[in-house]
Known about the structure:
heterodimer; A: 220 residues; alpha+beta; B: mainly alpha; two-stranded antiparallel sheet
Amino acid sequence: MFPLLLLLCLPPALAAVDCVNEYRNGYQVRLSIKTALGDQAYDWNESELFLFRATIAFAMRKFTKTEAYEVSNIVVCNQTPRVSFWFIVTSPENPAQAISKNIVEQAVRESRNRINNAFLLTDKSLEFLGIPPTLAAPINPDTPPWLIVFGVVIGAVCAGIVALLIMSFVKRRRGKKAKEVPEEEDQAKGTDKAVTGETFEDRNGVYNLGFADDDRFTQL
Amino acid sequence: MKLTLPNPGLEKRIPSHADLDRMEVEEAGDRPKWDNKTQYMLTCVGFCVGLGNVWRFPYLCQSHGGGAFMIPFLILLVLEGIPLLHLEFAIGQRLRSGSVGCWRSISPYLTGVGIASMLVSFVVGMYYNTIMAWVMWYFFNSFQSPLPWSQCPLNENKTGYVSECARSSPVDYFWYRETLNATASIDQSGGIQWWMILALMCAWVVLYVSAIRGIETTGKAVYITSTLPYIVLTIFLIRGLTLKGSLSGIKFLFTPDVNELINPSTWLDAGAQVLFSFSLAFGGLISFSSYNSVHNNCEQDAVIISVINGFTSVYSATVIYSIIGFRATEKFDECLSGNILSMMNAFEIPEGNITETNYDEMVNYFNLTSPAILAGLNLKTCDLNVLLSEGVEGTGLAFIVFTEAITKMPVAPLWSILFFIMLFCLGLSTMFGNIEGCVVPLQDLNILPRTWPKEVFTGLTCLVSFLIAIIFAQGSGSYWLALFDSFAGSIPLLVIALCELIAVSYIYGIDRFNEDIEFMIGHKPNIFWQVTWRFLSPLIIMVILVFYFVTTVAKPLSYIVWDPESVNFPVLAEVGYPGWISAIIFILAGIPSLSIPVVALVKFICNRNKTSHDTESISTISGKVPMTVKTSN
Lengths: 220, 633
């Protein structure tokens, strides 16, 4: 009877995964709480470890879409003062069997953001050694912003050039006109021909009748 | 007693003092004039103060004994810079003409000096505006957060960063790959980078709109381009002083090492820096001065501008090194944290046990207890002094070191925009002088019809420069630019400066020059000016020229390239120039320098032919016309 009882007791103990020896089938986790949070850093204790195991169980549940996983399925060992440890995920049906690393990795990757946030840490301060973080892709806008600024600057400058060229062109034409009118007046004084009204236009283009030659209308 | 070379016909070529007074009253309509003295001073200050004050002087200062470098710099500023500046101002104001016109008036054989100035202005303007294009490119890219040079782009399968970037740094990658798209050697063209063409076009168009009517438009633009850099420098100084580590940078800059004064290369570099920093021998200053009224006090102007230039160099060095000190301290802290992290991870020690203060003793402890593991960590040596003296001159300073420092500041895009606007203004005001030194001689040489308006001359200069500057938009463009910078902007300037001094002192005649200055400002130049113009300054420039020439010829022709496949990547690799580079160097340095004797020779030959032709025609005329006249009896 007694040996039978003993035999019955042993299997459950043997059935648990031997973390200390088989930890390499799991993943190592490293936390850098003081570096990340500075003054607001919390102490790492058993409760925090419990939270960690719960988040990993949550990640496994989310990934496998079952509600089978419990906190007891996450086995932790080899803790160091650095705050690093190894963990293995065991199967809910058979606690002696460890879940393959591949599935654990995918589960962790999927819920990485949630796990980080539970501890107020980032990918760098909560490291899963062997699971590289997915890098955030830099935002690539459709029109590169530099092209927009370039367009604005070039538009303004070209408008400036056109304005300046038109201004100097207009100035030059006005200058020429001012030179032409005195020349024509000189010519008009020199000739004896009947003058037409246009020659007596002053610079504003106004036809001053006062200066019109009335000789055309008088008959000698 | 005073040595003066024979110079027949000088009186006929230059306006007399009476002519000058008459021209002053009559107000010659087609010669441009300054609106007020402020415009003139701002334009000259803008021309002198350029990128060299910001990125060359701080490096020289720090590498030649810090505070001790001030001594050779100030001595040579007084003995070389101020006399040459006063000379150019006075001769421009007296002869009322640009560089070609001035030297041609002094002696037709000296026209080559003016032509050399024009060529140097043209070539330097071409590559200087390319640097402006780079500054504009960075300016355009500053309008986004995070700044594009703060992070590496991801590689194709998004598993990691692009290898070239991961091995060097995001700022290096952005500069060498995304801006320049640099090839591994000057032989490999790499094709034209279209974004560079756009930036280049923008730079030339902005320059054209500012310089379109000469000093009429640049005179208005300088109110902003000459004053804005000082405002931005002050803002950066205040910002810099509030950052951690800035004072260590300033201390590093000014810590004097008196032993450097014995080193001749310190004095050489100081002399070269004074000459190039004052933008002398480009012809632009002569032009600007010629638009002044005849009785303007050019002596006072020269001294004021020299002082402002020297002060700006020191001020910008302080600002730059405060930011560099900040960056070096940040990198040092990063390096140390990285080492501490790897040690913590390897030895499983809790955080906070290793700090900066006990770092060294912990390293020693672990070296004794477990040396193998420690060696396996490959800890980097973190040395603040090494970080402070990292590659900090030229484009490396502005586009790599400073941009990296900016990414570590809060509200980085704002600082980036401010910094690049400052660089752009500094460069643009220098470009005004270059354009002036290029366009005015072009008009004076009567190559193109005189009736064409100034807008056309400026437009043509800008267009031709832009088309040739497309070389710099290739993949190998930055190597071409470095080549142009070393050869086109150095030896020809020294030669021209020397010729100017000799021309005014000995061909124009120092006596005549003294009288002119007495007429213009009311008193003869004192003994200081006499000694420097006639002996000291030409001597100093001759010494610098000889040493420059000898060192350039002696050292093997090599340059540094960005080569991802080189052994020491990301350190730039040193590569020899290909054989055909000698021809290019000859064109850049030789043609402007040789144009002085060649033009003199050509004029000499033309004159000989003309005099013999004249005597023939005279004898023919007198032979044809009867010389006897019947008098009435």
